[in-house]
Write a structure and sequence with these properties.
Layout (H helix, E strand, L loop, with lengths): L35 E5 L1 E6 L4 E7 L6 E9 L4 E8 L2 E6 L4 E8 L5 E2 L5 E5 L7 E4 L4 E5 L5 E5 L12 E4 L8 E4 L2 E5 L5 E7 L2 E8 L6 E8 L2 E6 L4 E6 L10 E3 L14 E4 L4 E5 L3 H11 L17 H11 L14 H9 L2 E2 L8 E4 L12 E8 L5 E9 L2 E4 L3 E2 L12 E5 L4
Antiparallel strand pairs: 1-23, 2-3, 2-22, 3-4, 5-6, 6-7, 7-8, 7-9, 10-11, 11-12, 12-13, 14-15, 15-16, 16-17, 18-19, 19-20, 20-21, 24-30, 25-26, 25-30, 26-27, 27-28, 27-29
Length: about 425
């Protein structure tokens, strides 16, 4: 079984044709997308059943395998592996121990660090059948029974892993990988390609594809909409989401007629180094914020894992900015006034000239220098003359709502929280 979301916010495009003879994905025709600029590398670590480490690099443009290196025996029987970065791996054993593996080089040979290359950091309890790291500080693991757990990773070479928290039960997936910050992707036995966004201890799910993905034993991604699946015959096939920014699988294109390899991928566990391949569109950071904010319209407090049920506007703003890739959001908190501090720190605090993606601060006493603000929401549209804006905010009549057009400079209380006093632009 696998988890299904309470509220599916994004329409799913289904396959238009049957599977190819390989039993894999059929080509999606898709629709025209905004131009994307993609860049980066594809680096895949693996571990063989006999305990030897492997490293492979793949050309992201044509799917050709550039090299595969076989390294030394790790000294234990491996079960699940995930890469934290280019030279640090976490690997579990069949006995439930967790090891950190430090790599010295993967250039022309695969060699481990000269000193303490394999360190057992947890002696027991790591019985996960799959592990994946999102590249942003969260390690995810599933058990054979389908429990999904999240662990904080606070160092590039952790000496230990703090206790995890259970996200949910029922995540019985054939494969597990991470496509970005708190985003995990997996395939189900009945052929679905599923994406889950983890929000605290809650989650939402999108069915990227509804069939033809059940034949994979492993799935990895370096990011940027690239997926590499390994079949029972140990062939690796690659897929490219032509617009990984639109939260839809309808534009995933297969390359089944030109696989990475038709056989040879016999590793018991594989992991792409996270955050090594990315795509950016012609849209600006502000436009990404607006798209994400508008996608949440209609949601209420129960859809999130926020802390303050009666005052969650700032938590919503932080959530949207963070999901859009804004830098420095650790400076924000549940207080609306924290956005003022962010703006002053980054030099983006203004009392006029709104931009799409800006945070807007409101206060009934017409002052933000007293350490409080009544409300914060986000600019999603600006009129050509810059005088009118539309906003999306959380905790507006108990939900996420989009405003009508209003004159930000003259409206007395357009959202019911006092006048507009400031705009704060995010930093990419």
């Amino acid at each position: 079984m696998f988890k299904n979301t309470k509220t599916l916010r994004t329409a799913v495009t289904t396959l238009a044709a049957g599977a190819l003879s390989l039993g894999l994905l059929t080509t999606a025709t898709g629709t025209a997308q905004a131009a994307l600029v993609c860049d980066g590398t594809v680096s895949v670590y693996g571990v063989l059943a006999d305990g030897r480490l492997t490293f492979s690099s793949i050309n992201p443009e044509n799917g050709n395998r550039i090299k595969t290196l076989i390294g030394p025996d790790l000294g234990f029987t491996p079960k699940a592996l995930t890469a934290l970065n280019f030279n640090t791996l976490l690997v579990t054993s069949n006995q439930g121990a967790l090891y950190r593996v430090d790599v010295k080089t993967n250039n022309t040979t695969l060699e481990l660090a000269d000193t303490n290359p394999v360190t057992r950091i947890e002696a027991s309890g790591w019985t996960h059948d799959k592990l994946t790291y999102d590249g942003f500080g969260h390690l995810y693991g599933t058990t054979a029974a389908g429990t999904l757990l999240q662990y904080p990773v606070t160092a590039s070479k952790p000496a230990s892993i703090a206790a995890g928290k259970t996200i949910s039960e029922g995540f019985v997936l054939n494969t597990l990988t991470s496509a970005g910050k708190d985003t995990i992707v997996g395939t189900s036995a009945d052929g679905k390609l599923l994406s889950y966004k983890i929000i605290g201890t809650k989650w939402t799910r999108q069915d990227l594809r509804t069939s033809a993905w059940g034949g994979f034993e492993q799935l990895v991604t370096p990011g940027g909409g690239l997926y590499y699946g390994v079949t029972a015959s140990k062939g690796m096939y690659w897929y490219k989401d032509t617009n990984p920014l639109n939260n839809s699988g309808g534009d995933i294109v297969d390359h089944n007629d030109d696989p990475v390899d038709t056989s040879g991928w016999s590793q018991v566990s594989l992991s792409a180094v996270p955050k090594t391949y990315s795509c950016s569109s012609e849209s600006t950071l502000g436009q990404r914020i607006a798209e994400r904010a508008e996608a949440e319209v209609g949601s209420n407090f129960g859809d999130y894992d926020f802390d303050h049920s009666r005052a969650w506007c700032a938590e919503f703003g932080d959530y949207i900015w963070s999901s859009a890739g804004v830098s420095g959001t650790s400076q924000l908190n549940a207080a609306a006034i924290s956005f003022r501090s962010y703006g002053l720190t980054h030099g983006t605090y203004r009392t006029g000239a709104p931009k799409v993606g800006d945070a807007v601060l409101y206060d009934t006493d017409h002052s933000l220098t007293d350490g409080e603000a009544n409300h914060i929401n986000l600019v999603v549209e600006v009129s050509a003359d810059g005088k009118q804006i539309r906003t999306v905010g959380g905790n507006e009549s108990g939900a996420v709502q989009k405003s009508g057009w209003f004159n930000w400079d003259t409206a007395a209380s357009p959202i019911g929280a006092g006048p507009v006093l400031a705009f704060i632009s995010p930093v990419d």
